[in-house]
Amino acid sequence: MKTQNLPASATSDLPITIHVVTEEVARKRFYRLLAAEHSLGSRRPKGRTLYQVACRGDEWIGLSLWTAAVWHFKSRDQRIGWDPVTRSERLQLVVHQSRFLLLDGARQPNLASNVLAHFLRQVSGQWEECFGYLPLLAETFTDPESHAGTCYKATGWEPVGMSRRDGRHYAEKFPEPLSSKKLWIKPLHPKAFAWLCAPELPDACQAGVAGYAAERSPLRASHLKSLFQTLQTVEDPRSRQARTFPLGAVLSLVALGLLRGAVHLSAMVRQASKLTQNQRRNLRLPFKKGTRFVKVPCYDVFREVLRRVDLEQLAGALTGWMQSHAGELPRTLAIDGKIIRDKLGLIVTLVDTESGAPVAVMADPRGKGHELKAAQKLLAAPLVNLKGAIFTGDSLHCQDQTAHLITREKGGDYILQIRGNQPTLEAFAQGQLASAPPFSPKPTAATEGSMIANSAPCPPMPKPAIFQRRANS
After folding, report:
1. Facing residues of 162 across strands?
2. What is the pLDDT of residues 70-114, one digit of tens each?
3. In degrees to the nearest 10, what's the CA dihedral of 202, 203, 208, 213?
4. Domains delineated in the chain
5. How far apart are CA 93 and CA 375, in angstroms?
6. pLDDT digits (tens, 9 = 90+) for 278-303
7. Which of 132, 153, 151, 150 is nearest to 64 (CA)?
């Protein structure tokens, strides 16, 4: 058994040690204790399984069995911000506590939460040692009819929702009647939620990413249908003979590619070819002649449509669709300054940094090198509301016109990056930072219409500096 020592618990002079059970004899004892003392009994191991034992000296006092996560749980996926494709790729980074048992002979007040906390502190490192990657999130179920989950509350777990009564979320079968269970989650790293949705994972987590995604579309069926209906309103520039595939379907496939981070048209075509038959039908794609097989457009169809379509009209329709589904789209569906590499144009996206969801998009057919103008046009669009919001951008957007659009015309604030190629502005910002209060005072009638510099005081900052101006309300 692999052993790690921890500080002494509050209820005993002996230290609690956490062991990973690897020997066959110890595992049989592990399963016998679960069968005898746990209300759900033992369970057959499936897939990656970690057996933890808490001991005082040579005495076993607690057991924890970790297995693969639940495949799909709506409230959990929403809390993390996953779309279906990202979930299927990164689900192995979530571990499920299938059993937690404090042995009858060791029960004491507060010992359950103490032992559970010890298990949690060690599970990441022990799982990585056994399986080669670092998990980021733990989850478990409790039965509200028999357990209040007090030890989980005490150790910082978060309840995220109730399960269905049919038991379809379980990886094991239980006798009838089934009841709803409460799902709890616990981050195993301070940046767990951010990393689970990040475009790139830390190296320690890479081995836990699935080689392929079992899910094919990041959007649900209802979203696919509404996206098709919205983009079908874009004017079709093709001749009647070239309209085998509905324009709304082709543009929906492009939008799906952009929302998944594709920047090459060929990548969008590959993603489209992976859609299931039901997903293709939701996008009104046609059947292959003489069969019931729904086909997808080839590369030339995508290229011809995107060469001819009005990109600004496309961006406006997509912006309206995203805003009509605000709060429903997963955080992983965010794009920013994506260039369709095959010389078709530039897509600039305004993203809500708190939720991670895209808010609005703007297109420029001239492609790379025109992001600034496209971003300014996006900010000036009537559908974009920045009142009370803070716009953040890199040094490309540190321009007077952009600042005026955000503050004077849209009523927002901004935080923009300053680089060394703007020495006058950088020197001015450093001077303001040296004497500025933590927050600017609220504007008064006397200061109405003026611009107030605002940033937290700090020692001289290395390049690049961060500079924020606050608009008057």
Report:
1. 182
2. 888 889 998 998 888 888 889 999 999 999 999 988 888 888 999
3. 70
4. 2-208 (3.40.630.30), 217-384 (no CATH), 385-473 (no CATH)
5. 36
6. 999 999 999 998 898 999 999 999 98
7. 151
